[in-house]
Design a protein that fits this description.
The chain has about 110 residues and is an alpha+beta fold. It is built from three helices and five strands. It binds guanosine-5'-monophosphate and zinc ion. Zinc ion binds next to helix 1.
Length: about 110
């Protein structure tokens, strides 16, 4: 665990979060600044900074699967949703613990700005 990492502190319970789903490898919780009616972040329990550093394909697949389960649970699977991984500066990454955004509940614009 990286001590100063915000999302590691959510994993440890040091910082509270509205958890919607979890298992032994991953946690899904509501984004503190939602950009859509459903905005959930799916993260691995272990610290991985960016997508580029995520070399465990099993772990990556597990995170994607949990994102789809969250969409089902949130009732947006059929209406539609978007999964996003922002990476590094131009990608808009602000928290350097790998996370998948799950956004839904409204029509989302494409392409992103
Ligand atoms: P990024 O910009 O790195 O792709 O996404 C980071 C996300 O984390 C942002 O959408 C931001 O609103 C969210 N976030 C930042 N701090 C917290 C926090 O303390 N709790 C929760 N639940 N979300 C946070
Ligand atoms: Zn971390």
């Amino acid at each position: 665990m990286a001590d100063a990492c915000l999302f590691c502190r959510i994993v440890s319970g040091e910082i509270p979060a509205k958890i919607v789903r979890q298992d032994d490898r991953a946690i899904a919780f509501r984004d503190i600044s939602p950009q859509a009616p459903t905005h959930v972040l799916v993260i691995p329990r272990r610290h991985v900074a960016t997508l580029g550093e995520a070399t465990d394909t099993g772990e990556l697949g597990h995170l994607l699967r949990m994102a789809a389960e969250v969409a089902e649970q949130e009732g947006v699977a059929t209406t539609g949703y978007r999964t996003v991984i922002n990476t590094n500066g131009d990608g808009g990454q602000t928290v350097f613990h790998l996370h998948l955004h799950v956004l839904g509940g409204r029509a989302l614009a494409w392409p992103p700005g």
